[in-house]
Amino acid sequence: MKAAPNIGIINAMVRITCGLTSLTWATSKLSRRPWRSSYMVVAMMGAMKVGEGIVRYCPVTDFLQNQQTQHKED
User: Is 34 strand, coil or helix?
Assistant: First the structure.
């Protein structure tokens, strides 16, 4: 599977910024209340957004684009 970039530069920068912000927020909250699993989920989602921004590939966007293409062919 070849993962070609499917998001633009501005979208990637927004994903990196929002991902780092949420990752920082969740990490600071997690350091005070480590028993709360919701902070860990937010941290993982933030890390995922940072990764998507760096690679410039979003699997959800790819899936939706493929669904639209298949729907138009039918």
Answer: coil
Residue ranges covered by each domain of the chain: 9-73
Which pLDDT score, from 0 to 100, does residue 22 have?
97
Measure the CA–CA gap between 43 and 16, rounded to whole angstroms.
13
Three-state DSSP at 1 gives: coil
Contact between 53 and 6 under an 8 Å Cβ cutoff? The reply is no
Copy the structure tokens of residue 10: 């501005």
Cβ(20)–Cβ(46) below 8 Å: yes
Query: Are 16 and 53 within 8 A, CB to CB?
Result: yes
What predicted TM-score, i.e. pTM, was given to this entire model?
0.83
